[in-house]
Write a structure and sequence with these properties.
Elements (H helix, E strand, L loop, with lengths): L1 H23 L29 H15 L3 E8 L8 H7 L3 E4 L5 E9 L5 E5 H4 L2 E9 L5 E10 L4 E5 L9 E2 L10 E6 L7 E12 L13 E4 L11 E3 L4 E10 L8 E6 H14 L9 E5 L2 H6 L8 E6 L2 H6 L6 E5 L2 E2 L3 H9 L6 E8 L2 E8 L11 E2 L18 E3 L4 E5 L2 H7 L5 E6 L4 H4 L7 E5 L2 E2 L3 H10 L5 E7 L6 E6 L2
Parallel strand pairs: 8-13, 15-21
Antiparallel strand pairs: 1-3, 1-5, 2-3, 3-4, 4-7, 5-6, 6-7, 9-10, 9-12, 10-11, 11-14, 12-13, 13-14, 15-16, 16-17, 17-18, 17-19, 19-20, 22-23, 23-24, 24-25, 25-26, 25-27, 27-28
């Protein structure tokens, strides 16, 4: 009997233990294959806890809107009678001003403006008031008062204009510092889109220093603040403000395929606008200093071709002005900084120089022959053939004056182009000493993408003159994979230009 009780107790205990093991499912026990290495994915640090007070953000937007809106005005412009221009549709594609065509070939457009002085000076866009008829600019304030405005001055290169109304103690916008703006910050766009007065939209700063090539001039100065705050036709000339109610930009353009907002808008930085406005009010025009260089972007290939460790600075394609010549700037130089401010893109350099005047001095740090040198330039006024710093990012286009020669073409297929000897007539017509002619460029090749054209004549390789095809071939064969060629070429039209090609 005792044995039976003991056996029953033993089996009950074993059953309880076994059941507990099954229920536990081996929690806490590390199982796996023998010698298996554990892989840890992601950072070990804890995520940042964002202290987001939605009520505070809401109150901030309300406060900013109340403080900034009164200084933003509506501008209605009646233009001079004219015939529609062929490029008008393309113009409206980018510039969001609101036009209604009249039977007499006049038109009306609406935009926005920002009051910047108590006595009535207003900043807006040049394209808003362009071609305005005499007495054709009407300004409506946020409090519904209306004024006739006179045109003070315009600057098409920045798309800035100033108009004036007669008033006293008008609401004036606070002007911020656009150099302090950072990507990711909140911004509010205030204006009069689609005839809807005093509209406020919000977004973030999504890019700084954007160039979208809407100013139809090679010397146009584009250094836009990009936001995703909704901007539509009629917002042009209105305010882009930060969360403190300070104007950091003048809304100017939108990226669109249907003449309406599709996600991105662009504003002129207020620091650039202030410089232009000051000149327009004082002189009626912009007194702008100029370096006198044709410039382009430095990328990895161009950096390697010039012995730079990384892509930085702005490449000097050509020196065309007296200021740069007098200071000893040369084609092929890379401007790394101006007044200790690093340069990363052509439009950044243009924007900085645009804030200077003739007679001002600027200090350049230049990369030349794989070393840094310094140059001090005294800026000069733009002459008829001069330039501040023209963006020369394109190429000359395909030339058509090439005669077939009997010389054999040498194919550098890995580079995407072939060369052969140019005939004597072509050499004479181009006024060059080199006979290295680009006979073909493969479509979609790296050489084609970088702007090398069929019928270009190669004048230099790595800033050293080259005269014959055999010389050029020898240099190319001496290069290793990953290195780059810096070619100075001349097409049928235009000046010599540099083209960098990577050795694959």
């Amino acid at each position: 009997m005792k044995r039976s009780i003991f056996a029953a107790f033993f089996f009950i205990t074993i059953g309880i233990i076994f059941g507990a093991v099954l229920v536990s499912d081996f929690d806490g026990v590390g199982l796996g294959f023998a010698q298996q290495k554990q892989i840890k994915l992601g950072a070990e640090k804890s995520p940042t806890k964002t202290d987001l007070n939605l009520q505070a953000a809401n109150d901030a937007f309300v406060k900013v809107s109340k403080e900034a809106t009164p200084a933003v005005v509506s501008i209605v412009v009646t233009t001079k009678a004219r015939k529609p221009q062929g490029r008008e549709e393309e113009f409206f594609k980018y510039f969001p001003d609101f036009r209604f065509h009249q039977p007499d070939e006049q038109s009306q457009g609406s935009g926005s403006g920002v009051i910047i002085t108590k006595d009535g000076y207003i900043i807006t866009n040049n394209h808003v008031i362009e071609n305005a008829a005499d007495d054709g600019i009407e300004v409506a304030l946020n409090d519904t008062r209306r004024f006739r405005a006179k045109l003070v001055g315009t600057d098409p290169l920045t798309d800035v204009a100033v108009v004036k109304i007669e008033g006293e103690n008008l609401p004036v916008a606070m002007l911020g510092n656009s150099d302090d703006v950072q990507v990711g910050q909140w911004a509010l766009a205030i204006g009069n889109p689609l005839g809807l007065n005093s509209t406020v939209t919000a977004g973030i700063i999504s890019y700084l220093g954007r160039s979208i090539r809407i100013i139809n001039d090679s010397y146009g100065i584009e250094n836009f603040i990009q936001t995703d705050a909704a901007v539509n036709p009629g917002n042009s000339g209105g305010a882009l403000v930060n969360i403190y109610g300070e104007v950091i930009g003048i809304n100017t353009a939108i990226a669109t395929t249907n003449q309406r907002y599709q996600g991105y808008s662009f504003a002129i930085p207020i620091n650039l606008a202030k410089t232009v406005v000051t000149d327009l009010i004082q002189f009626g025009k912009v007194e702008r200093g100029y370096i006198g260089v044709q410039i382009s972007q430095v990328d990895e290939t161009l950096a390697k071709a010039n012995g730079l460790d990384k892509a930085e600075g702005v490449f000097v394609q050509e020196v065309v002005g007296e200021a740069a010549k007098a200071a000893g700037v040369k084609a092929g130089d890379i401007i790394l900084s101006i007044d200790a401010k690093p340069m990363k893109a052509p439009n950044e350099l243009q924007s900085y120089i645009a804030s200077k005047h003739p007679g001002d001095k600027v200090k350049l740090v230049i990369w030349r022959d794989e070393k840094k040198i310094e140059k001090v330039i005294t800026l000069k006024a733009r002459s008829e053939n001069g330039t501040l710093a023209a963006n020369n990012s394109g190429n000359d286009g395909e030339d058509t004056d090439v005669e077939e020669t009997t010389s054999r073409a040498i194919d550098f297929s890995s580079l995407g182009f072939s060369v052969k000897k140019a005939d004597s007539r072509l050499v004479k017509d181009r006024n060059v000493s080199s006979t290295v002619l680009v006979s073909s460029v493969k479509n979609f090749s790296e050489a084609a993408k970088r702007g090398l054209n069929e019928s270009d004549i190669i004048l230099q390789v790595d800033k050293k003159p080259v005269a014959t095809v055999s010389e050029f071939e020898k240099i190319v064969k001496s290069k290793k994979t990953g290195e780059a060629l810096l070619l100075l070429v001349k097409g049928a039209q235009g000046s010599p230009r540099f083209v960098a090609v990577m050795i694959p």
